[in-house]
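Let us walk through a complete example step by step. Step one is to write down the protein sequence. Step two is to encode the small molecule, zinc ion, as a SMILES string so that its atoms and bonds are unambiguous. Step three, shown after the inputs, is the structure prediction itself.
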Amino acid sequence: MGNDAPARRREFTRTIEDFTCAHCHAEVKGNGYTDHCPRCLWGRHVDVNPGDRASGCGGMMKPVHAVYMHGIYIITYRCEKCKAEKRCKAAPDDDTGLLEALAGRKSYPITPTNRAKNSSS
Ligand SMILES: [Zn+2]
Ligand SMILES: [Zn+2]
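Step three: the predicted structure of the complex.
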């Protein structure tokens, strides 16, 4: 049967992408759900809904707040570029200390020697 479709492979399943964090330059191993850096928690504004990569913004999403609910952290992000806010669940690999600090649960000793560097205006 002459039914040879061009051998084109489309991968519309989960996009598994490794990326380098644009904020702290950590190399992040994607697992298909990864939308932020587990080390500094910053993300990119690429999704409208989680995983859809439908936003053309591409700005940096800053983690501004976190809440601890039902055993999981929900991180609130604000886009540095378009100021959109969105929430997403923390991933198991995320830096717990940072999450706790964002949630205000306890003070997080961010490399004690560097703390005095914070110049108050
Ligand atoms: Zn990072
Ligand atoms: Zn944005």
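Step four is interpretation. The beta strands are 19-20, 27-28, 43-44, 60-69, 72-79, 85-89.
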